[in-house]
Amino acid sequence: MNDLTAAVLVSIARVNRGSGDVDPPTELGHLVRERRNMSTDELIQLDEDQLDYFTEDGHKVYRAQWQEQTGRIPMEIGGVDEEFRILDIGGANGRFSDQLLAEYPRAQAVVVDNSEYLLEQNIPNDRKRLLLGSATQLPEILGGEKFDFVFVNCLLHHLVTGSYSGSRRTIRGVLRDLSASLSERGRVSIWENVFEGTLLTNLPSRAIFEITSVRALSKIARKLGANTAGVGVCFLSRPQWRSELNAVGLEVLDSHWTPMGLPLYQRLPLTIGAVGAVHLWCGKAQ
Fold it and tell me: Strand, helix or coil at 126?
Protein backbone atom coordinates (compact mmCIF):
# COMPACT_ATOMS: atom_id res chain seq x y z
CA MET A 1 0.00 0.00 0.00
CA ASN A 2 1.52 3.37 -1.03
CA ASP A 3 1.34 6.58 0.98
CA LEU A 4 -1.49 8.05 -1.06
CA THR A 5 -3.68 4.94 -0.79
CA ALA A 6 -3.08 4.87 2.96
CA ALA A 7 -3.97 8.53 3.19
CA VAL A 8 -7.26 7.94 1.37
CA LEU A 9 -8.21 5.12 3.74
CA VAL A 10 -7.32 7.11 6.85
CA SER A 11 -9.17 10.21 5.65
CA ILE A 12 -12.48 8.36 5.20
CA ALA A 13 -12.61 7.82 8.97
CA ARG A 14 -12.98 11.54 9.66
CA VAL A 15 -16.21 12.68 11.33
CA ASN A 16 -17.87 16.02 10.51
CA ARG A 17 -18.45 18.34 13.42
CA GLY A 18 -20.90 21.17 14.26
CA SER A 19 -21.08 24.85 13.33
CA GLY A 20 -20.61 28.23 14.98
CA ASP A 21 -21.33 31.91 14.62
CA VAL A 22 -19.37 34.79 13.14
CA ASP A 23 -18.97 38.21 14.69
CA PRO A 24 -19.48 41.29 12.50
CA PRO A 25 -16.44 43.03 10.98
CA THR A 26 -14.91 46.18 12.43
CA GLU A 27 -13.60 49.22 10.55
CA LEU A 28 -9.90 49.99 10.95
CA GLY A 29 -8.48 52.75 8.74
CA HIS A 30 -9.14 52.04 5.05
CA LEU A 31 -9.28 48.30 5.65
CA VAL A 32 -11.96 46.10 7.13
CA ARG A 33 -10.95 43.58 9.77
CA GLU A 34 -13.18 40.92 11.25
CA ARG A 35 -13.45 39.14 14.60
CA ARG A 36 -14.47 35.49 14.73
CA ASN A 37 -15.56 33.01 17.36
CA MET A 38 -13.59 29.77 17.14
CA SER A 39 -15.77 27.06 15.60
CA THR A 40 -15.65 24.14 13.19
CA ASP A 41 -17.40 26.29 10.57
CA GLU A 42 -14.76 29.00 10.87
CA LEU A 43 -12.51 29.40 7.85
CA ILE A 44 -9.13 27.78 8.35
CA GLN A 45 -6.25 30.10 7.45
CA LEU A 46 -3.16 29.23 5.44
CA ASP A 47 0.25 29.67 7.03
CA GLU A 48 2.47 32.48 5.73
CA ASP A 49 4.74 30.08 3.85
CA GLN A 50 1.66 28.73 2.08
CA LEU A 51 0.55 32.29 1.27
CA ASP A 52 3.86 32.90 -0.51
CA TYR A 53 2.53 30.84 -3.40
CA PHE A 54 -0.14 33.49 -4.00
CA THR A 55 2.44 36.27 -4.26
CA GLU A 56 4.21 34.45 -7.10
CA ASP A 57 2.81 31.65 -9.29
CA GLY A 58 -0.62 31.71 -7.68
CA HIS A 59 -1.43 35.22 -8.90
CA LYS A 60 0.35 35.51 -12.20
CA VAL A 61 -1.98 36.72 -14.93
CA TYR A 62 -1.61 34.12 -17.66
CA ARG A 63 -2.53 35.25 -21.17
CA ALA A 64 -4.94 32.42 -22.03
CA GLN A 65 -6.77 32.72 -18.72
CA TRP A 66 -6.88 36.51 -19.04
CA GLN A 67 -8.44 36.35 -22.49
CA GLU A 68 -11.00 33.80 -21.37
CA GLN A 69 -12.03 35.71 -18.23
CA THR A 70 -12.08 39.24 -19.59
CA GLY A 71 -12.82 38.74 -23.29
CA ARG A 72 -16.57 39.20 -22.77
CA ILE A 73 -16.28 42.57 -21.00
CA PRO A 74 -16.35 44.74 -24.18
CA MET A 75 -19.59 43.05 -25.31
CA GLU A 76 -21.15 43.63 -21.89
CA ILE A 77 -20.22 47.29 -21.41
CA GLY A 78 -20.23 48.61 -24.98
CA GLY A 79 -16.73 50.12 -25.11
CA VAL A 80 -13.33 50.60 -23.48
CA ASP A 81 -14.25 54.09 -22.24
CA GLU A 82 -17.35 52.92 -20.39
CA GLU A 83 -17.43 53.29 -16.60
CA PHE A 84 -17.85 50.08 -14.63
CA ARG A 85 -17.02 48.64 -11.22
CA ILE A 86 -14.98 45.50 -10.50
CA LEU A 87 -14.98 43.35 -7.37
CA ASP A 88 -11.94 41.08 -7.08
CA ILE A 89 -12.59 38.51 -4.33
CA GLY A 90 -9.43 36.93 -2.93
CA GLY A 91 -7.50 39.40 -5.06
CA ALA A 92 -4.28 39.02 -3.03
CA ASN A 93 -1.54 41.20 -4.54
CA GLY A 94 -4.00 42.84 -6.93
CA ARG A 95 -2.23 41.95 -10.17
CA PHE A 96 -5.44 40.85 -11.88
CA SER A 97 -7.23 44.09 -11.00
CA ASP A 98 -4.16 46.14 -11.96
CA GLN A 99 -4.25 44.72 -15.46
CA LEU A 100 -7.97 45.39 -15.79
CA LEU A 101 -7.53 48.99 -14.64
CA ALA A 102 -4.68 49.48 -17.11
CA GLU A 103 -6.84 48.19 -19.97
CA TYR A 104 -10.00 50.09 -18.99
CA PRO A 105 -9.16 53.69 -17.96
CA ARG A 106 -12.59 54.45 -16.45
CA ALA A 107 -12.98 51.26 -14.46
CA GLN A 108 -12.77 51.14 -10.66
CA ALA A 109 -11.82 48.11 -8.60
CA VAL A 110 -12.29 46.83 -5.06
CA VAL A 111 -9.89 44.08 -3.98
CA VAL A 112 -10.97 41.93 -1.02
CA ASP A 113 -8.61 39.52 0.72
CA ASN A 114 -8.35 38.15 4.25
CA SER A 115 -4.53 38.37 4.25
CA GLU A 116 -2.94 41.67 5.19
CA TYR A 117 0.36 40.12 4.14
CA LEU A 118 -0.91 39.79 0.55
CA LEU A 119 -2.79 43.10 0.40
CA GLU A 120 0.34 44.97 1.43
CA GLN A 121 1.93 43.83 -1.83
CA ASN A 122 -0.59 45.77 -3.93
CA ILE A 123 0.64 48.59 -6.14
CA PRO A 124 -1.20 51.81 -5.08
CA ASN A 125 -3.81 53.04 -7.55
CA ASP A 126 -6.37 55.82 -7.10
CA ARG A 127 -8.96 53.65 -8.82
CA LYS A 128 -8.32 50.61 -6.62
CA ARG A 129 -9.58 50.19 -3.05
CA LEU A 130 -8.32 47.46 -0.72
CA LEU A 131 -10.52 45.75 1.87
CA LEU A 132 -9.09 43.39 4.45
CA GLY A 133 -11.68 40.77 5.30
CA SER A 134 -13.17 37.41 4.50
CA ALA A 135 -15.26 36.45 1.49
CA THR A 136 -17.74 35.12 4.04
CA GLN A 137 -18.43 38.65 5.28
CA LEU A 138 -19.16 40.45 2.00
CA PRO A 139 -22.51 42.03 3.01
CA GLU A 140 -20.91 43.74 6.01
CA ILE A 141 -17.65 44.59 4.25
CA LEU A 142 -19.24 45.99 1.09
CA GLY A 143 -22.16 47.74 2.76
CA GLY A 144 -24.58 47.14 -0.09
CA GLU A 145 -22.27 48.28 -2.92
CA LYS A 146 -23.07 46.89 -6.36
CA PHE A 147 -20.61 45.77 -9.02
CA ASP A 148 -20.75 45.17 -12.75
CA PHE A 149 -18.13 42.41 -12.76
CA VAL A 150 -17.15 40.12 -9.90
CA PHE A 151 -14.03 38.00 -10.38
CA VAL A 152 -13.36 34.96 -8.21
CA ASN A 153 -10.09 33.40 -9.31
CA CYS A 154 -9.25 30.04 -7.71
CA LEU A 155 -10.63 31.18 -4.37
CA LEU A 156 -13.79 29.23 -3.62
CA HIS A 157 -12.03 25.90 -3.06
CA HIS A 158 -10.02 27.59 -0.29
CA LEU A 159 -13.16 28.39 1.75
CA VAL A 160 -12.49 25.47 4.06
CA THR A 161 -13.91 24.98 7.53
CA GLY A 162 -13.63 22.13 10.02
CA SER A 163 -15.86 19.81 7.98
CA TYR A 164 -16.74 19.03 4.38
CA SER A 165 -20.42 19.87 4.89
CA GLY A 166 -19.43 23.14 6.58
CA SER A 167 -17.14 24.00 3.66
CA ARG A 168 -19.94 23.36 1.17
CA ARG A 169 -22.32 25.57 3.17
CA THR A 170 -19.71 28.31 3.26
CA ILE A 171 -19.14 28.17 -0.50
CA ARG A 172 -22.87 28.37 -1.18
CA GLY A 173 -23.24 31.29 1.21
CA VAL A 174 -20.47 33.22 -0.55
CA LEU A 175 -22.04 32.54 -3.95
CA ARG A 176 -25.35 33.86 -2.62
CA ASP A 177 -23.63 37.04 -1.41
CA LEU A 178 -21.86 37.45 -4.77
CA SER A 179 -25.22 37.29 -6.53
CA ALA A 180 -26.58 39.97 -4.21
CA SER A 181 -23.61 42.25 -4.98
CA LEU A 182 -24.31 42.38 -8.73
CA SER A 183 -25.66 45.42 -10.52
CA GLU A 184 -28.53 45.00 -12.99
CA ARG A 185 -26.06 44.16 -15.75
CA GLY A 186 -23.69 42.34 -13.39
CA ARG A 187 -21.69 39.22 -14.22
CA VAL A 188 -19.70 36.80 -12.08
CA SER A 189 -16.53 35.17 -13.42
CA ILE A 190 -15.49 32.02 -11.56
CA TRP A 191 -12.23 30.20 -12.33
CA GLU A 192 -11.80 26.88 -10.52
CA ASN A 193 -9.64 23.78 -10.71
CA VAL A 194 -11.60 20.56 -11.17
CA PHE A 195 -10.80 16.89 -10.46
CA GLU A 196 -13.51 14.47 -11.61
CA GLY A 197 -13.65 10.71 -11.13
CA THR A 198 -13.73 7.89 -13.64
CA LEU A 199 -16.09 5.86 -11.45
CA LEU A 200 -17.88 8.50 -9.37
CA THR A 201 -17.65 12.05 -10.67
CA ASN A 202 -17.50 13.72 -7.25
CA LEU A 203 -15.32 11.18 -5.41
CA PRO A 204 -11.83 12.63 -6.07
CA SER A 205 -12.82 16.11 -4.85
CA ARG A 206 -14.14 14.70 -1.58
CA ALA A 207 -11.06 12.49 -1.10
CA ILE A 208 -8.73 15.43 -1.75
CA PHE A 209 -10.58 17.43 0.90
CA GLU A 210 -10.17 14.69 3.49
CA ILE A 211 -6.49 14.07 2.73
CA THR A 212 -5.45 17.73 2.72
CA SER A 213 -7.44 18.69 5.82
CA VAL A 214 -5.82 16.13 8.15
CA ARG A 215 -2.70 17.63 9.73
CA ALA A 216 -1.30 14.17 10.45
CA LEU A 217 -1.24 13.57 6.69
CA SER A 218 0.23 16.97 5.78
CA LYS A 219 3.71 15.62 4.97
CA ILE A 220 2.25 13.10 2.54
CA ALA A 221 -0.04 15.72 1.00
CA ARG A 222 2.84 18.17 0.52
CA LYS A 223 4.91 15.50 -1.22
CA LEU A 224 2.00 15.00 -3.58
CA GLY A 225 1.97 18.71 -4.41
CA ALA A 226 -0.80 20.01 -2.14
CA ASN A 227 0.02 23.59 -1.13
CA THR A 228 -2.88 23.48 1.35
CA ALA A 229 -1.64 20.38 3.18
CA GLY A 230 -2.94 20.31 6.76
CA VAL A 231 -5.51 23.02 6.02
CA GLY A 232 -7.76 21.46 3.39
CA VAL A 233 -9.12 22.31 -0.04
CA CYS A 234 -12.69 21.85 -1.26
CA PHE A 235 -12.75 21.29 -5.02
CA LEU A 236 -16.09 20.61 -6.71
CA SER A 237 -16.93 18.86 -9.96
CA ARG A 238 -18.52 20.73 -12.87
CA PRO A 239 -22.00 19.33 -12.09
CA GLN A 240 -21.57 20.35 -8.45
CA TRP A 241 -20.64 23.91 -9.43
CA ARG A 242 -23.69 24.25 -11.65
CA SER A 243 -25.88 22.89 -8.86
CA GLU A 244 -24.47 25.36 -6.33
CA LEU A 245 -24.91 28.29 -8.73
CA ASN A 246 -28.49 27.32 -9.56
CA ALA A 247 -29.27 27.07 -5.85
CA VAL A 248 -28.41 30.76 -5.31
CA GLY A 249 -30.12 32.10 -8.43
CA LEU A 250 -27.10 32.34 -10.71
CA GLU A 251 -27.18 31.04 -14.27
CA VAL A 252 -24.14 29.86 -16.24
CA LEU A 253 -24.26 31.95 -19.41
CA ASP A 254 -21.05 30.55 -20.85
CA SER A 255 -18.29 28.17 -19.78
CA HIS A 256 -14.87 27.04 -20.91
CA TRP A 257 -12.83 23.95 -20.05
CA THR A 258 -9.02 23.97 -20.01
CA PRO A 259 -7.56 20.43 -19.65
CA MET A 260 -4.54 19.99 -17.37
CA GLY A 261 -2.06 17.16 -16.88
CA LEU A 262 -1.68 15.06 -13.76
CA PRO A 263 0.76 12.17 -13.16
CA LEU A 264 -0.64 8.66 -13.05
CA TYR A 265 0.59 8.14 -9.47
CA GLN A 266 -1.82 10.90 -8.44
CA ARG A 267 -4.65 9.92 -10.77
CA LEU A 268 -4.92 6.20 -10.10
CA PRO A 269 -5.39 5.96 -6.29
CA LEU A 270 -8.10 8.65 -6.40
CA THR A 271 -9.69 7.34 -9.64
CA ILE A 272 -9.24 10.77 -11.23
CA GLY A 273 -10.32 11.08 -14.85
CA ALA A 274 -10.92 14.64 -16.05
CA VAL A 275 -8.50 17.24 -14.68
CA GLY A 276 -8.61 20.88 -15.65
CA ALA A 277 -9.75 24.42 -14.99
CA VAL A 278 -13.31 25.52 -15.61
CA HIS A 279 -14.36 29.10 -16.25
CA LEU A 280 -18.00 29.89 -15.47
CA TRP A 281 -19.41 33.19 -16.74
CA CYS A 282 -22.62 33.79 -14.77
CA GLY A 283 -25.49 36.18 -14.45
CA LYS A 284 -28.65 36.34 -12.37
CA ALA A 285 -31.18 33.74 -13.48
CA GLN A 286 -34.10 35.22 -15.37
Answer: coil
